[in-house]
Structure formats: C-alpha cells, structure tokens
Amino acid sequence: MTSASRYTYLGPEGTFTEAALRTLPEAATRELVPMVSVPAALDAVRGGEAAAALVPIENSVEGGVTATLDELATGKPLMIYREVLLPIAFALLVRPGTALTDIKTVTGHPVAQPQVRNWLAAQLPHAVWESSASNADGARLVREGRYDAAFAGEFAAATYGLQPLVTDIHDARNAETRFVLAGRPARPAARTGADRTSLVVWLGDDHPGALLELLQEFAVRGVNLMRIESRPTGEGMGRYCFSVDCEGHIADRRVGEALMGLKRTCPKVRFLGSYPRAGDGPDGRTGDGVGPLLRPGTTDADFVAAADWLARCQDGRA
Amino acid sequence: MTSASRYTYLGPEGTFTEAALRTLPEAATRELVPMVSVPAALDAVRGGEAAAALVPIENSVEGGVTATLDELATGKPLMIYREVLLPIAFALLVRPGTALTDIKTVTGHPVAQPQVRNWLAAQLPHAVWESSASNADGARLVREGRYDAAFAGEFAAATYGLQPLVTDIHDARNAETRFVLAGRPARPAARTGADRTSLVVWLGDDHPGALLELLQEFAVRGVNLMRIESRPTGEGMGRYCFSVDCEGHIADRRVGEALMGLKRTCPKVRFLGSYPRAGDGPDGRTGDGVGPLLRPGTTDADFVAAADWLARCQDGRA
Amino acid sequence: MTSASRYTYLGPEGTFTEAALRTLPEAATRELVPMVSVPAALDAVRGGEAAAALVPIENSVEGGVTATLDELATGKPLMIYREVLLPIAFALLVRPGTALTDIKTVTGHPVAQPQVRNWLAAQLPHAVWESSASNADGARLVREGRYDAAFAGEFAAATYGLQPLVTDIHDARNAETRFVLAGRPARPAARTGADRTSLVVWLGDDHPGALLELLQEFAVRGVNLMRIESRPTGEGMGRYCFSVDCEGHIADRRVGEALMGLKRTCPKVRFLGSYPRAGDGPDGRTGDGVGPLLRPGTTDADFVAAADWLARCQDGRA
Amino acid sequence: MTSASRYTYLGPEGTFTEAALRTLPEAATRELVPMVSVPAALDAVRGGEAAAALVPIENSVEGGVTATLDELATGKPLMIYREVLLPIAFALLVRPGTALTDIKTVTGHPVAQPQVRNWLAAQLPHAVWESSASNADGARLVREGRYDAAFAGEFAAATYGLQPLVTDIHDARNAETRFVLAGRPARPAARTGADRTSLVVWLGDDHPGALLELLQEFAVRGVNLMRIESRPTGEGMGRYCFSVDCEGHIADRRVGEALMGLKRTCPKVRFLGSYPRAGDGPDGRTGDGVGPLLRPGTTDADFVAAADWLARCQDGRA
C-alpha cells in the first residue's frame, strides 16, 4: 500500500482510538498504523508517510486532549476533515481464569483512572492502581503477568488474549471521546448544513477586553460557539491562545465573515477545518444531520440579499 | 433655467439656510428657490422640479431638525450629497432710526428664541417676544411695522430694508447649524477619506436589546457613531426608529459590512448617503480633510487581506 | 390658595396640557395656572410659586418635546413624580355658523400641523395654514376673526366660544402625548412595580464606545430601556447628552445598580425621578399595572440572595 | 505535630511541588507530607488530617493541571489562600559515574517530556524515553538501575543519591509552574492591592451567548480576566464549566459586584478564594506588589461615592 492509503492513529492496537477509526467506512480499505503518541501520528501525516491520522481531541469527562490541541495549533499546518464520537466504557480485562477476588493490582492509562475510580473504590477497594502508557499497553502488561487486571476497551481483549471479566464500567453517564481525522491542508470537507469549524486564535498581549471582542466577532454574526479552550502560548505565564469550535462551515457566509473579523483584529488565526458534526448523543452516531438554529438575518440568503442591497445603495438604486 | 439647475431651500430669502446654500461653489450657477417649509423644499426635488434642496438638519444648540429627519426617513427616498456647517449668530434687525430703548416687541423663529434668550433677558428685559414663521419672516413683519425688532442673520438686513442694530448675538459659544443638500437617489458622493454616512434604522418591536445590537454592528467593525437620534415611527408611543450618522463612506469596507449587518438583522434600513464631512470647528469650513482614526484591523487593506486569507482557507492554501 | 396647592401648566387654557392635567384626581383641589411656555411653567416651580408643573415631554408622532427635555436636563434640578398619557385628536373649531366651504384660513400650533396634514389636504386642499403660538391661541384668533378655523382639542371650544365643526381628526392612529408632572427634588414617587425611571447622562467627550457602554450598564443588569434621546450639550456640534427612560424604579436593585454604574463611569448623571408608568394604550389610562418581564437573576430577591452569598464568601461560609 | 501544622503536597519527595512549598516561610515550621496524587493531597485537607495542601494548578507550557482544576471545582469545598510561582528547569540526574554517552534510556513525568523534547532530540537523539509517575519517581527508578537518566529538579539529586549531569534544561524560555495552597473554607487572605480571585462558573445549558454574558459581568465593572479555562461538567460532550481567575480581591467593590452578578445570572458559582498575586516574571518571585491598572470609575472610592449619590437620589437630595 502507498502512503495515500495509510492512516495512522494513536496506538497501540486495541485502543479506543483504533475502535473509533474502524467506525469510518473507508477504514476497511486503508492500512491502519498505530503510533506511539499523538505527535508521532500527526508527524507521519506532515511528513507524507500517511494520508491522515485519527487522534483523540476531547473527552466528555477529562476535557481537551492537550497534546492534540497543541500539535494542531503549532508546527506545520494540518486540517481536520472528520470527527468521530465514541462512547467510552471500560472492560476489566484479565487472564483467563482470574476471579474478581484474585485481583490485587490493576492498571490502565492515567486518563482512564478518574473514569473508573468510583467503580474501583466500590468493587476492588484494596486493589493497587498503577498507570500504564495506554489502556492497550496495560492489557499487554496483564498478559505478561505484571498486573492482575487492566481497564481497556472490551474490543482489546481478543488482541491481547485476555477475557473481559466485567464490562460497561464508567463512572460518568454518557462518557464519550471525540476524535478527529487530520490531514494535510486541502479544501475543507463539503458543507452538510450541520457542520463544525475549528480554529486557533491568538489574542493581543496587553488588551484586557480581547477575549470579549473575540466572542463578539462570532456573536454579532449569530455564530454559536461549541467549545473554547485556552492554551498557553509558551511565551510565559498568563499568555494564552484559544482553541475554538463554532457551529457552521467556512462556506457559510456568517462563519466566513466571523473568521475574517478574527483574522483582521487578532494577531494570528489558524484555520483548522470545517467538517460534519458527529452526533452529540451517547451513541456516538456520526452525522446527526441537525444544523444549528440560525438567528434571524444570518442565513446565506440574508447575506446575499444584504450584499445586493449594498450594491444597489452604492449605485443609487436602493 | 431647467429643473436640473434649480436648487430649493428652506426659505424665505434671507434665512440662514440661504446663507449656507451660498457657501456652495455651484450655488453661483444655480437658480435658488426659497420654499415655505422643509417638506415643500424636499417635495420639489422628489417631484423633479428641482435638482436638490438644502435644508437644516441639526443645530448645535437646538438639536435635530425633526421636520428634516422625518422627511428623509419616510416618503419617496432622497439622498444626501453634501453637508454645510454654518456658524449661527444673530443680528437684531430694526427699521432705520430705531434705538434699543424703542424696542417693545421682538420676533424671530421659535428656534432662535432659546439662542438669544439670555441676551434678551440682559439687554431688553421688558421686550415681549412673539414667534414668527422664520427669522426672515420676522424681518418682513418688522418692516411692515408689526414688531419693533427681529432676530435674523445679518445678511437678511438688506433684503428687508432693515438695519442691524446689534450683531453677533448668540447665547451659546460655537453655535452652528448643519445643513444637508438632498437629491434624488443616485451614486453617493465620491469617497474623500473624511466622510459621513447617514441612515435610518428601524428596530424590531419587542426586542429589549435591539439598540445595543444596532450599536454593536458598528462597534465590531470599528465604525464610530457621530450622531444617533431616536424618532417616533408614528405607530404609537414607545415605537422608535433611529437616525444615525457614522464616520466613513459606504465604499469603506468596514462601513459596508456594518450596513449589511444592519440590513440583515433589522426590519428596515434606509441608506441616506455618504458625503464629505464638513469641519467640526466653529468656522463652518467645509472639508476638514481629517479622516477618522481607524481601529487596527479595519482598513480596506485589512478587509482585502482577510478576504484573501478566507479564500485560501477555502482552497486549502492558508 | 398657597403655592403648595398651585400647579402650573403649559397654557393657555384649553390646551391638551390642561386636559391632561385635569385627568389627575388632585387637580380638582389645586389652583391650575396656565403659563406661556414650558420654561415659565417649570421656573414657577423652581422659584417656589407653584408646587408642580405639568408639561408635555413626548408625542407619539412628533417625538420628544425638546423644550421640556432641555429644561429638565439643565438649570436648578427638578424631578418627575407622575406621567399622564393623553390621546391626541383634534377638532376643527369655527365660529358658530361657519361651514366647511367657508374656510379659507386655518391655524394651530406648529406641532399640530403634521398631525392633521393629510386630513387638511383631503378635506380643505385650498385652505391656507398659518401657525399660532398654541392650539388654544389659534382658537382665540379664530374667535377674533383673524382665521376661519383652528385645530385644537374639542374641549377648547367652550372656552373660546367656538363650535367643533369636525372632531376626532388625527392622521396617525394612536397619536398620544405623554406629559410629566415635575416638582422640586424630594423622595421619588412610591414604587408600584410598574414604574419608569428618567435620567440624563453625559458621555465623555472623546470615547467612541461610550454610548455602547452606557447601554451595557443597563443591559448587564437586565434593565430595559424605554426611550433614549440625544440632545446637544450646547458645547458645539457633535457633543451630546442622552435623555433616557428605563423600566423600573430607583428602589429596584437592578435599576439602582445600573444608575450607580452610570454615575461611576460617566462624567455626569442627573436623576429625574422614578414614577408609575402610565398605560401605553391609546386610551391614556394611567397605571397599567403591568410591570416589566424581568430577566432571570434580576429581581430584588436575586440581588439580596447574591449579596448574602458574597458576605458568606467573605466570611468563609459559602 | 498535629494536623493543624501539617501541609500535604503532590509528592513524592523531590518534586517541583516540594520545592515550591519550601519557598513559603511557614514551611519551615510545618510537617510536610508528600501524597501520591493531587486528589490525595486535597482529600487530606478535606478530611482534617492536614491544614493545607500545595498542588500545581498551571504550567506556562503545559497549561492547566486538570486534576487540580477538577478537584477544586467539585466535591467538598476548598479555598485557595496562597499562590507560588516556580521557574521550571530540569536537571538530567544520573548515577555517579554515568557519562552522557552512556545514556540509552531516560525517564521523567509525562508533563516534563514536551519541556525537554528539543533538548533531548539535540543532545540524546537515540535515547529512549519512558514515562514515570513523577519526576522524583523517575529519579528513584534511575537509582534502582531501571533507567540511565531522569529529568527532575536539581534539588532532587541529593534525595535520591544521584548527580546532576546537566542542569537548567528547558525548551521554553520562562517556563514556570503556578502552585496553589488550598485549605478548608475560611475568611479569604487579606487584601493586598495586588490580588487574584479564583472561581468556577457553570453556564446555563442552552444559551449560546452565556459565555459572552459571563465575560460582560466582569467587563462592565472593569475587572480584568487573568485566566479562563473550560472544563467538562461530566454531563456529556459539549457541557462545560469555566475556571476563571480575575484581578482583584473579593473585598474590592468592583470584584464583589461582578461576583454577585455571576451568582445572580449563572446556575452555579463556586468561589475559590482571593489571594496575593505572585509575580508574573520568570524569577518566580511572590508578591509582585503591582496592582491592576483600574479603569476610571471602578475604585472602591468610586463605588462608595455612587452609593452615596444613589441614597441621596432616593432621599430627594441629589
């Protein structure tokens, strides 16, 4: 296979990221390559060894995945073309024959720990937790005998020759993770009417009202924010940029005008793509098909009518 | 002369409006026709009997001239192509031979009265004031013997065979009146870089934050307001439209985008023209040549650069 | 009678102002004194010769009564304690025996003219209009034979020995005038739950966003504006103060906090009173009893609860 | 020693957190107890076993420490009384006798990795990185021979019997971490004039402009934001609360009014304390003593004067 048919993802095999990737129809015809880290998965795309990378960007319990946010904000530009929502429930994987009462040590990715903490306190109060590099890596360490049990996706059991002793473990209801498929810059995904647009905005240093003005660029065009996350710029404490998702597509006039407003008034803006919104429900369905409820006066037709009117005014025909 | 070379103005002869009109270079080659009222002056333009009409729109002491504001806001559309600022100082006009001590009755336009009230109280405390239809009409009534003295522009003395007994009377320092030259809709006046744009905006009925949103359409594009005046819509108490002047020209991108924003989100907008700003000083000079101090990110070049960037984003070349 | 029982009003007798004044229950036990002008009516109160003055402040067709707005904004402070809404319909008053076809000249206050213009054009297209100092004064001049007919309130007919030839004339539907009863500063009228608060706010000279900030002081506390009117400060073209009415009473916490916000951030604020709202309907009823629909979090109870919470936070008991 | 003199911190011994804790003068007279995690350190305070806990809250390179943000936002309330800024520079710790060329494996906390990535790529391009549970834990594993070198604070060398082979390693200039000292709710730290106030605000679910309104509660009172961080509420994707720091102290009127505004209009607000600002410079000094530049009209004196004026208005003495 060529690099054009290769997709990388945050590995190892058996992670939730792989499970998310396999929900994409085209995954069946792609070479799926696990990578050791988010930067590694994305760098393979930047370097041309892969066509795209699937990486987690946000978890409904743990929040933004900073490695992904920061990788997309800096370095050689990448763009997002798809998102996948995956409900997160853990299975407790053990070597065949292990009973709940046999378990003295458990492992899993540090991010998994707070999502199973209550379950663990109730069911295995005396088990000692040690973190592993990934949920799948934890499964491997269980197979090797280092730990008695690992929290991981149920789908990882087969890969590592383990058994799911308990399934559907999750402290929070509706826990889910959002993954994005990132590629090299090209035309954005086609507009569907139920889209999401991602960007990173840097604010001027010494301007206390700058964040308010950023939000007003969206608000005055009736564009709703879906997510805003501050990230340090690396230039010292108190210096932030903002990772922002808004409803709508760059091809929507209201979104385009808001983006241009940011571009004009902020020191730096990085466009990260417009792509179909995955469903917001707990079933992780992609393509909920429900567009935003637009404020009056903000449809494309309204923008076109206003531009026509402006042209008529300028010609003395209004 | 044909109607194309005819300018009407708020008469009669000898008013400040005529004096303002004569400051326009082209006045020398036009037929200047006094009309009995602002509506009459403007209706002559609407009806094609005149090319343009000069009418007062705002006085620095008395405020907006509501007849003009309302005529421009309703009825067959008109547009403003020029403005003239005229310092306002009154002369006390009397029949030859009249002394200050002879004066028992004085007259003048009702608008003149508050501008000379203090002077009158100090110099002619016992004189009885009666309003006349215009300052010039007051002069006529003095000539006819109905009153002893009239407040009017010094320039009206000759027209009515009177003498200026006292000149340069004005309670307020820097009193001046702004006049506008209105014509039928056509291309706006050329952009000079120091322009003013006038419009009338109707707000939705039942929306408490609507005025705030109107102002934000300007603010978010860095367009400064110069004047805002509420006027009743005639649909009952509490229903208003807003007569607004902002800095800049409809051909300025920031102004154009703000106007389109209003057009999209307000029930009705009437564009009244973009035209060179007359000086704000007390000398009534036209064309102060000083453009607004633009907020960073709001020049035409900034708008063009942002549009280029948006296009590149849409093409995957950002 | 003493000055304490004397009310002045904008005269002469037979004006709409007198009719409005007579709708107040206490008018029956007061000496009602017509004055020649709004300033005269208010100065009598300032000087202690009268307890209060009723003057028009706003007409639903003609807009704000600038003489009243400016008198309340400047000079010795006055406060508003009541408002009266009066529907405005004109009668055509003639000397007994006059027929419509006899009428060659008509008169009335300049403010009446635009309100009957259409009727006049349709019914008496050839009649010549001349303005008089007041509608009642026009009636007097008809009785004296100077004009054939006067537009005035039907109630003025008896006073001037005239007959109402046509009644209920008004071009605009729902035309009404709002009058205010002004007295010397004292405690505001009691809160009714359906109140109006009036103030005048001066903005800093050179601050383009100042009007937006003024509105935000109201908006952030959920206080709706009912009226905003710019008035020149008299310091030169382009310098304005704002006459503002908002819903609510100074004793309402949200209103009080908004007023303090303005006081802190604007160069000058003049409080003109809180008083019961008269009905907005065409029947001129006072006391519609309908308070504003409050935004969540802006009732007095919400303010008290928040203050309690703040105190607990400061004490470490939150 | 009693629990009143016991401070917990994010352990183990030799972490940057311990180094930060030792910058506090009172640390000399307290029992300092390392804990295995941020939740454990804070729970000891909640449970009464310790008086306070020092935990990292924000790193100028890595951003907010989500474990700390989430622990402070939920569960039994805690409050912040102090902050400490510590410049972050790593030393490469090795067993005595190890040379740079001997190093095949390196370890450190996952958070350290991006802060030394460039250095590692340049100096030890072939060394394999494996994460450890903490920097200090990595040092321990080096002593035990599992890895060849660990990135940690230079101060950890002695604790673990290692040698600092290279010091002052940090990819980013001015890297520093902010730590907070959290205790059970009590009166906030005394106002110094250069303070910081922390809170967590939940927004209403379905209100697109809610974040804008949150910011306006601060802006309209002239309170500058210093940090804003969105965190998932755990109620599903797209539901966030905001961890916010603003300049000023709860005892400052402008801050108090902003907090009350949030309390009134947001579903939930948790006050996390007001405390002296540590310096923002790279030297990690505490108490920079520089208060915020206040917007005109927002000092306590301005608030008091406005409250006096309001009282006078309500008494008719304005």
Automatic annotation (TrEMBL), chains A, B, C, D:
Residues 6-184 form the Prephenate dehydratase domain. Pathway: Amino-acid biosynthesis; L-phenylalanine biosynthesis; phenylpyruvate from prephenate: step 1/1. GO terms for biological process: L-phenylalanine biosynthetic process. PANTHER family: PREPHENATE DEHYDRATASE P PROTEIN, PREPHENATE DEHYDRATASE-RELATED. InterPro entries: ACT-like_dom_sf, ACT_dom, Chor_mutase/pphenate_deHydtase, Preph_deHydtase. PROSITE patterns: ACT (PS51671), PREPHENATE_DEHYDR_3 (PS51171). Its EC number is 4.2.1.51. It catalyses: prephenate + H(+) = 3-phenylpyruvate + CO2 + H2O. It comes from Streptomyces olivoverticillatus. This is Prephenate dehydratase. Keywords: Amino-acid biosynthesis, Aromatic amino acid biosynthesis, Lyase, Phenylalanine biosynthesis. Residues 199-274 form the ACT domain. It is an enzyme of class 4 (lyase). GO terms for cellular component: cytoplasm. One of its GO terms (molecular function) is prephenate dehydratase activity. It holds the Pfam family ACT. The record marks T177 as: Essential for prephenate dehydratase activity. It comes from the Bacteria.
